[in-house]
Amino acid sequence: HATWSQYFVVIEGTGTLHLGGQSYPITKEMIVEIPKGVLHYTQCKEGECLKYFFINIHDPKINEG
Question: 65 to each of 1, 5, 37, 40, 61, how far by Cα in Å?
Answer without folding.
Answer: 12, 17, 14, 21, 12
